[in-house]
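Posting here for the record, re: zinc ion.
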Amino acid sequence: MQKKEKSFGIQMLSVQPDTKPKGCAGCNRKIKDRYLLKALDKYWHEDCLKCACCDCRLGEVGSTLYTKANLILCRRDYLRLFGVTGNCAACSKLIPAFEMVMRAKDNVYHLDCFACQLCNQRFCVGDKFFLKNNMILCQTDYEEGLMKEGYFERAVSF
Ligand SMILES: [Zn+2]
Ligand SMILES: [Zn+2]
Ligand SMILES: [Zn+2]
Ligand SMILES: [Zn+2]
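Prediction output follows.
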């Protein structure tokens, strides 16, 4: 399991009046504001640390930024451009960022993989499903499993 996201924290610092103004890594001018942002070991005007895609001010959106190929991006754009949603908990293959997924607790699934793992029944919106030992189960199989001793651990309600 490797989860490598190139995310970096952003700090907002207040500028001490008696210190020499720092240069902004975005516009190369001195930062004379009362606050500056520190990210990627560089200093930035609050206005200069922006997502290369949507121009949002990263100091406001959250306190992380993402970089890839010299681009500075907000999380949304990073995931949109480069991200993957995660690994499908059923087939353990990667799910690309754009694909529709099903989510259950912390797990994500391909739409096609989201079915009872014992009887392959697919679920519709509103259907009950159960998660047991990271297996998706329909209600019938779940309840059957509960009755067979030792087959499942104690029930965990979903
Ligand atoms: Zn600047
Ligand atoms: Zn963005
Ligand atoms: Zn899958
Ligand atoms: Zn089933």
